[in-house]
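Closing statement on the aspartic acid sub-project.
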Amino acid sequence: MQNRRDVFKTTLALSSLAGLAATSAGAASAGKPIVVSTWDFGVAANSAAWDVLKTGGHALDAVEAGARVPEADMKNHSVGRAGYPDRDGHVSLDASIMDEQWRCGAVAALEHIDHPISVARLVMEKTPHVLLVGDGALQFAIEQGFTPQELLTPESEAAWKDWLKTAKYESVANSEMSTYGHAPGSKVPGDVHNHDTLGMLALDAQGRLCGACTTSGMAWKLRGRVGDSPIIGAGLYVDGEVGGATSTGVGEEVIRNAGSFLVVELMRQGRSPQQACEEAVMRIVKRRPEAAKTLQVGFLALNTKGEVGACAIQPGFVYAQCDGNKTDLVVPSKSVFS
Ligand code: ASP
C-alpha cells in the first residue's frame, strides 16, 4: 500500500508529466509554411494546400484540400476515382490523415466514394476509431453524406481488360519508376500514369505539421488487398513535436518495416529528414537485397523546422515542394540504385 508521501510523490510526478504533455502536444514553434508531396502530380496538390497555408490556415485543412486534387483528377489512374481497379474490376481506395496531436483516421478498401481522404478525416473526427474498411467504411461514408458512385472509368476499364488479356490474372507488384529524368520513350518500368500514391506533409504558419496519404493502391491487386497508405506508421506518420513521413511504392515492404514511423523515430533520435529517409530505405534493402533490386519504395519526410528529405530504392522518385518562393518545384530524390 502507498503511504501519503508516496501518493504525493506519484501525484507530483503525474502532474508534471501532464504539464509536459500540455506544453508539448500540438504545434512546434511558429515559422514559415511549407508543403511537400510525392510525385509530379504533387505540384497541383501542393498548390491547393498552399492556398490554405498562405492565408494562415491549419495544416490539416491544407493536406485534405491537397489530397482531394489527384483524387478528383480523371487522368490520374493511381489515386482517387479514376484509379485502376483490382484484378476483378473493382476500384478500391485507401487513405489516411494525421494531425499534429497524434489524432489520425483512415479508410481501406473503400469502394464507390471518390474522396477517401475526407472520409478518413471524418473517421478521425467523428468516431472513436482509427481505421474503417470495406463495406463498413462505405456505410460510414454514406451516413456522413457522401454519394456512392461508379468509380471505374471507361479508360480504367479498358486498361484492366487489356491487362486481363496477358496477365493470366496474376497480380504483380508495380515497380513504378517515373519517366522523370529519362529520355522520352525510354523503357523504364511504369510511367507517369503509374505512380501510385499522393503522400503529403504540410507545416503551417503556427508550426502545426499534418499529413495525408491517398491511393487506389497497386493496379490489378487481389481483391481486398490493403497497402501501406491507410496504415498509420506505414504509409504515413506524424509526430507534431518532431516531423512527419510518408511513403510510396510497394506497400507490403513499407508495412513490414513500419516505414514512416521508422523515419519519424530516426528524426526524433537526431537524424535530419534526409538521413532518416536514407536509413529507412537502406533497412528495406538490407533485409531483402534480392527483392529490393526490382521493387520501388520511396520516403518523403518533413521536420518541424521545415527541413525536407527524400530517398527511394530506385531512381525516378520525385517530389514536389512549395514554400511560397518556389511553388512548383519537382525534385528528384536520392536513390540506392542508379
Ligand atoms: N504504396 C501504395 C500501395 O502499396 C502504392 C504505391 O505508392 O505505389 O498501395
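Confidence is low (pLDDT under 50) at residues 1-26, 175-194. With this model delivered, the sub-project is considered complete and its resources will be redirected to Aim 3.
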